[in-house]
Amino acid sequence: MLTALFLLCGLLAVQAQIPAEVSEMMRKCEANMNHASGCEYDMNVHVSMMVMSIDMKMVIAQKNGKSLVRTSMSKMGREMTTENGFDGHQSWSFKHVKLTDKDKKKGKEYKDTLTITKGGKAEKDDEFELEFDFDKSYRKATVKQSGRYKVITFSNPVDKDDPKKVTVKVDTEKMLLREVSMKESIAKITMTVTRVKYGVSDNFFVLETSKFPGAVIVRK
To answer: Is the pLDDT confidence value at 32 over 80?
Structure first.
């Protein structure tokens, strides 16, 4: 009995390190950025490593379990664009790489591929979804006010494989998550939401293979 009480007290002490206002903000952000009418947001992603940095632009749309993610980036001089979608019945993944002149001189070739999978979401779709349960994934949170924003730093992760610290910036007027920053291994990743739009048409999530001319279509 005493052991159980000690364990309970320990759990309560850990939970108390997450302020109630933080949990409430996370819930409001999740509700606002997963609106029933659909939500579309633009993001800039910056990855900084010791030897290089990568900048990526993303468009993410979600509605009633459907999702569509488009990305564009430049890496080693090559321009890359991707699209990952799920319409409720099938998922698809497309990647296009525009080779450099140097690549072409070396005889390198790249063929676009559109992979369509029946059934559930593609395994990698959840990599592009914004997370809102930091108050459950971390044991501690500190809050700082910065104008209309609140900057929250989460630390002491429940899962040891998660980043040791994650910092989020919340727009307290609109209750939207505007920035997420974390350091994972040797990379520092910062995701900044630049535009939020409510109301997304169901047609936005329809796969049209005609938009990918010349791509090799693989069905699974």
So the answer is: yes
Token pair of 191 as six digits: 């995701």
Q: What is the distance between the alpha carbons of residues 130 and 139, in angstroms, rounded to a whole number?
A: 20
**pLDDT greater than 50 at residue 12:** no
137-to-102, 133, 166, 171 alpha-carbon distances in Å: 45, 6, 10, 21
Burial of 210: CB neighbours in 10 Å, binned 0-12, 13-18, 19+ = exposed
The pLDDT score that the predictor gives to residue 94 is 95
For residue 151, count other CB atoms closer than 10 A to its CB. Answer: 16
Nearest to 25 by CA among 179, 171, 182, 196: 171
Q: What is the pTM of this model?
A: 0.80
